[in-house]
Structure formats: structure tokens, C-alpha cells
Amino acid sequence: MSIESIEQAKLENTGFSYTLSLINGKYKITILYYLTAFGVVRFNEMKRYIGSVSFKTLSLSLKELEADELIIRNEYPQIPPKVEYSLSARGKSLIPILEAMCEWGELHKTTAKKK
């Protein structure tokens, strides 16, 4: 990051801001993490995994991630309906960032408890 002065800096023009706009939301990173860990996942499986998310919020988060081309939604024409979600190539490019977050958390969660 090379910013000459904070007075000239505009957060909305940064790559950080763009990335944050894609993954910002209470459950988006959790959804991406789950898809990274388990590959192809059905809606109800994701709902059970997250637990505290409402059906409406999960559905909205998935639609936003799909619109941003981070996940792929595959719908199968059968009864009952079957819908599966997976990471797109663009979503897979976030895996190193998610892994770095996991590593950081593992490293610091034990030190934070000792204080």
C-alpha cells in the first residue's frame, strides 16, 4: 500500500475497499469458508452448519455472492428441488486469504485467552 498522505487518500478507490464490498456481511466469509472446506454444499446443509442464520439472510447472502461471481449455484430440475453451491474460479482465488485468516486466528486465539 503506497499512499502519500491521508488527506489525498480515498478508501473507496482502494483494492481493499473493493474486496471488502464483496465479502462484507455477517455470513459471507463464513459461507466462503464452508465452501472452501467442503466443496459442493446444499442450502439446508449450510443452514445447519451456520445455525444462527435465518433462511432469508442466508438466501440473500448466497444471491449476493452469486451476483458477485464468487459462488456458483446449480439447480437440478427435480422434486423436491435440489440446489447446490460451490466456489467459482473467482471465489477460489480468495482461498489463500481465508487460509491466512485461519492461520492468524489459530496463532492468536491462544495468546488472547492468556491475557
From TrEMBL:
One annotated GO molecular function: DNA binding
Key words, A-Z: DNA-binding, Transcription, Transcription regulation
Keyword set includes DNA-binding: yes
InterPro entries in UniProt: HTH_HxlR, WH-like_DNA-bd_sf, WH_DNA-bd_sf
Domain HTH hxlR-type: 14-113
Matching Pfam families: HxlR (PF01638)
Descriptive protein name: DNA-binding transcriptional regulator, HxlR family
